[in-house]
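Researcher: Here's the sequence for the chain we discussed earlier.
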Amino acid sequence: MKRSIVSIFTALAVIGAACHAETIKAGKSGALAFDEVLLPLIEDRRLPGYFLSIQQGGESKLERAQGFVDEKNKVSPTSNTIFEIGSMTEPLTATAIMVLVEEGKISLDDRLIDFLPEFKGLKVAPNGSYDVPLVELSQQITIDHLLNHSAGFSAVKRFSLRLSNVDKSYREKGLFRNNAELRDLKSNIALLASIPLIFQPGEAKTDSVSYDVLARIIEVVTKQSFDSFLTTNVLVPLGMLDTHFVVPTDKQSRRAAMHEPVVWGYNVPGKPKMYRQSIISQTAKAQSNIARGRTGIKSTANDYLKFLGFLLGEEDLPRLSMSSASRLELIKKIKGLEIGTNNTQKHAAHLTGQGRFNTAFWLDTQTRASGVFMTQINPAQFDLAPTLLNITAETFKNDS
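Model: Thanks. This is the structure I predict for it:
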């Protein structure tokens, strides 16, 4: 992305925020707790605007909208505003994988090399370092490893002062970056196969490009583009008709503007803005339209709530045929699953997810409540999902 000198200094100032988003906590319980957490983000001019929506049992329970998604034209966020949701793409990719499992076309124990033989020569650079000899794999990567982010791949890191040798290879070779030769999923994954892992498969878990590999496996198995298969077999059956990798022209007016944080304020009356609208190069825009399994989806609060309702087994949604056992397996595979043992969620399975652009989702299987939080700031500044999950579980527990 092309940036001005000011933008470069701004980016350096927020590197820490990209790795450690600020955790927000609520001191109250009940519906007012949502306002206690979220309103200061607008009043202190730390976010341009947001949309929050909670549902339970397939019914809308609460909506909050503050600020703007387009300040210049005074456009407020709604349930149909289209946001970039970053890694909230991953649960949709996992769903596509489970569709193929249900159809008997793949198994979670299947090996990566059986679908993508270019990975046969893959080796491990311990801790991502080239200072020691590369070692052979102790076991082959499976689809299960990929779903759990335990395959040994790293991630393409935008902001980081500490890059391993493997991370540097991702950058230098232009993996999922501004590389004119890597314009599709196939070419990026072929390049990935030439870069060592950072740990042995199954040895650890870390944020990674594993879901991009899963998307490529889907293409090989189905002989369709990942975008096409996901749309036909997941998005359309769930009624997620405003969810796209490439937003159609007639829906562009509903897109939220992207913002980035600043460490100084503008000269305006009152509290200074701690954000500004991002300037994204045409090359970066083209890269963001690659249909990836890890990121790239644009969606609405209304659409993503349909997906969360599907995970909870709501009966009144458009149908995506999947057994209860496979749906429960899917929930387990989506990263972020925990077994709650705190006072507000005793023994309740709950799921949270945070997107790169500060979007978030959460669900609680005990109360059957779920929610989404939508805003647009890159990198993410606030780790909101756990707090909003706890408020949701406490506020709506008596209605379950």
